[in-house]
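Quick start: what a row looks like.
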Amino acid sequence: MISDSLRTADFDFELPEELIASRPLERRDASRMMIVDARAGTISHHHFREFAEFAQGSLVVLNNTRVARARFFSNDGKIEMLRLEVSGPLLWRCMVKPGRKMRVGDGVMLGGATGLVEEILEPNGERLIRFDQPVDEARHGHLALPHYMNRDDDALDAERYQTVFADAGKERAIAAPTAGLHFTPELLETLPHAFITLHVGVGTFQPVRADLLKDHVMHVESYEISPPAAAAIQAADRVLAVGTTVTRVLEHSMTVHGRIKAEAAETGIFVTPGFQFQRVNSLLTNFHLPKSTLFMLVCAKAGRELMLEAYRQAVSERYRFYSYGDCMLIW
């Protein structure tokens, strides 16, 4: 149950726009890392290259989803499409801009493929579009970078907006599980680790419009936990979750099943202050948007006042924010 007293405005903070990272650092592991000790109520400043020291004794759990080229523009440049799901052979569920130009029966061309709107799912933009042939995604698809980067994707993003452990067979995410972007293959080799999969959807960027948290409708995302991963995570003495996506999957499984269950399912779990964590002992995460569900999750893990102070220090110390930014380890 979400407390009736929790208000969206309670999770706001000031962030200078110049601290938003729109480009990655030259090295993945060059990021700074804030350490927040939730029990002691202390904050200290480190670098991600020290991560292995803090991870000792923990099973590190990572999200191996891969970001799809899900953003498309019509040949004439008048229609933008964000593919949310492949609903069937040649059938896409998309958000389109502008929605008013895409009525039932209207067509759109992507390269040599023609798509027709079969159904309006949401008046302002969501459509089912059926194509007459496969779309050349490698040629016409783009990574849907977060809006706060204020730019289109480029060749560097094709490498750096993917984790080094992204599974090519799990290319369904719209956004990257950004806490994983700091890892190198060399670091991963030194750590006991397991993978789960959560396909990050567009809902991760949707603002909370309700005044009270209890009135917010959480987005739903698909996840998978393999039998070996479930067994390892269930048996671990300590679990260090890399990212809010991993945290949501593991805590959903514990809430629903009372254990880490191997399955392919969906979660719409909304973690807010007062939530009792059952499996995630510590959390590595990037810095999140004000009043976002992700910021509310980290407040649930470390406490709202401590987290607001951590973010105040991050601004003062000039940390880099959001997807390509620095990270925080909540201990």
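That is the whole record. The first helix runs from residue 51 to 55. The chain has eight helices and 17 strands.
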